[in-house]
């Protein structure tokens, strides 16, 4: 017979067992329910991320405020490279959301003649965007035409919630006269952002159906020459400027509204921003709490400077903070620091002291590689005896006894983007024939020296301009034809090294 003490202990054990069973039952019941399909709870995540996990902006030594008490002067450096988007036009609704509907507005730059536009409660229907799916491997789409990859927008591809007070049939968001004023064609034959806005419609709340919401600020980007580094840098810069102009507190997500296949440049897109996705990769319509539409790369100062005079010179943010100057800028230095910081590299280095391990001289090479579906894999030579020049420089560096010189073979076509940026930031001197790879100098440190070898067939100002706008020392060897005499290149490099104390 059980004693009273044993009976009491047995009751305690049975009670604890029952309590544990009830707890387990409640746990599995609550975790086995399917997710609610209400718009307020479904898909609060974008590609596995939510607002709490958006990347913060890094601290950049060259950063200067993007908001101004008054607009910068027309054609000033800040108007070209910073926030000259000062002409605000509210095209629909109120960002406060007091009316229960969406909103849309544009920030226009008289200097660049383009707009950064943004809006809320915007619906994208990928089924009404006619283009290839995008994000395929290059090998899968060899021979695909470019026009298949560029978006064509049917009416209603993008819609804005007109709110409960909106009545009648859908109407255009932006009329033609407003498109001409705020998103002019300029010299762009196919202006995809203008076409996007032209297709956008305002609809009543009863027709604004959303089963998938993206809660975080999201940049919508259309790319053209996506496999070319120079043009991709103009896209990166436009996306960065758009994020700053609209005052985003964190780095946004990015959606490519194009049908290009994947490429090596995506590594930097993913580093710069919080996440990346292609529009056609959504299985159906998706709605955005806050969408920002990035201007085309062709509309940036980096591209416009090739055909119009932009009288700007690079300067340190510290100097500009103390002595503002409309003809000087630190914006490209800020952007270069943004790229380096996004890859985890230090941004407080301003190479002044003599390097202990020697001076890195980076020779940016042009290599054959398959760039895009319409590319044959052969890169046109801009320096016909490039290997001979490299070998001569390598021999010179090996026998240079005044100081240690490390000649770095910049085979960028077969290097990850992060390693390309690392090679740029570690270089004291960057040499190369005119080619898109030299665009990496946007990430170079302030004391880096640039030496460009220019064929008479390709006298374009791309890299001389970038160097000037960043405040980098720049030298050029202009060739007759595409053949360089190695001794002339060595002589020029020797002079540069002596100026560095080597």
Explain what you see.
- The protein has 502 residues and is an alpha/beta fold.
- The protein is 28% helix and 18% strand.
- The protein is built from 14 helices and 22 strands.
- It has helices at 4-31, 77-81, 146-149, 176-182, 192-199, 229-245, 266-272, 301-304, 317-322, 331-342, 386-398, 417-425, 462-470, 486-499; strands at 87-92, 103-109, 114-120, 122-124, 129-130, 152-153, 158-161, 171-172, 201-203, 213-214, 218-221, 253-256, 275-278, 286-288, 291-293, 313-314, 328-329, 359-364, 405-410, 429-433, 449-454, 473-478.
- The strands form 5 sheets. A 7-stranded mixed sheet has the order 1-2-3-15-11-12-13. A 6-stranded mixed sheet has the order 8-9-7-4-14-10. Strands 19-18-20-21-22 form a 5-stranded parallel sheet, with helices on both faces.
- Helix 9 (317-322) links the parallel strand 16 and strand 17 (328-329).
- The radius of gyration is 28 Å and the shape is globular.
């Amino acid at each position: 017979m059980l004693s009273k003490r044993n009976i009491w202990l047995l009751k305690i054990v049975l009670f604890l067992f029952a309590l544990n069973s009830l707890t387990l039952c409640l746990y599995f019941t609550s975790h086995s329910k399917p997710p609610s399909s209400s718009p307020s709870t479904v898909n609060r995540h974008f590609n596995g991320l939510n607002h709490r996990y958006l990347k913060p902006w890094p601290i950049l030594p060259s950063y200067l405020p993007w908001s101004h008490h008054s607009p910068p002067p027309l054609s000033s450096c800040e108007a070209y490279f910073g926030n000259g988007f000062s002409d605000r036009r509210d095209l629909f609704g109120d960002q406060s959301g007091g009316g229960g509907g969406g909103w849309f507005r544009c920030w226009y730059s008289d200097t660049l003649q383009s707009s950064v536009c943004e809006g809320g409660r915007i619906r994208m229907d990928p089924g009404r965007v006619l283009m290839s799916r995008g994000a395929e491997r290059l090998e899968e789409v060899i021979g695909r035409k470019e026009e298949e990859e560029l978006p064509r927008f049917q009416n209603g591809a993008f819609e804005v919630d007109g709110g409960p007070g909106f009545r009648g049939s859908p109407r255009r968001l932006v009329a033609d006269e407003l498109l001409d004023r705020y998103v002019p064609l300029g010299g762009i034959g196919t202006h995809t952002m203008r076409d996007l806005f032209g297709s956008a419609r305002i609809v009543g709340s009863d027709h604004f159906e959303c089963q998938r919401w993206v809660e975080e600020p999201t940049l919508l980007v259309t790319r053209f020459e996506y496999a070319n580094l120079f043009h991709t840098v103009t896209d990166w810069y436009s996306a960065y400027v758009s994020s700053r102009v609209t005052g985003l507190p964190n780095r946004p997500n990015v959606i490519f509204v194009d049908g290009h296949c994947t490429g090596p440049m995506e590594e930097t897109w993913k580093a710069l921003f919080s996440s990346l996705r292609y529009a056609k990769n959504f299985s159906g319509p998706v709605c955005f709490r806050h969408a920002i539409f990035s201007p085309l790369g062709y509309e940036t100062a980096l591209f416009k400077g090739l055909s119009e005079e932009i009288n700007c010179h690079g300067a340190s943010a510290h100097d500009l903070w103390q002595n503002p100057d409309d003809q000087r800028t630190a914006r490209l230095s800020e952007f270069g620091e943004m790229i380096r910081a996004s890859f985890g590299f230090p941004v407080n280095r301003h190479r002044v002291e003599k390097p202990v391990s020697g001076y890195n001289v980076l020779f940016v090479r042009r290599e054959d590689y398959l760039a895009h579906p319409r590319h044959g894999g052969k890169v046109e030579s801009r320096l016909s005896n490039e290997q001979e020049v490299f070998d001569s420089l390598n021999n010179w560096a090996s026998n240079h006894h005044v100081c240690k010189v490390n000649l770095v073979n910049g085979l960028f076509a077969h290097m990850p983007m992060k390693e390309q940026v690392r090679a740029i930031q570690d270089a004291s001197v960057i040499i190369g024939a005119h080619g898109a790879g030299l665009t990496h100098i946007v990430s170079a440190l302030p004391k880096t020296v640039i030496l460009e070898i220019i064929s008479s067939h390709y006298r374009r100002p791309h890299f001389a301009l970038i160097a000037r706008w960043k405040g980098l020392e720049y030298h050029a060897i202009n060739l007759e034809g595409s053949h360089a005499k190695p001794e002339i290149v060595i002589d020029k490099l020797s002079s540069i090294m002596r100026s560095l104390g080597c």
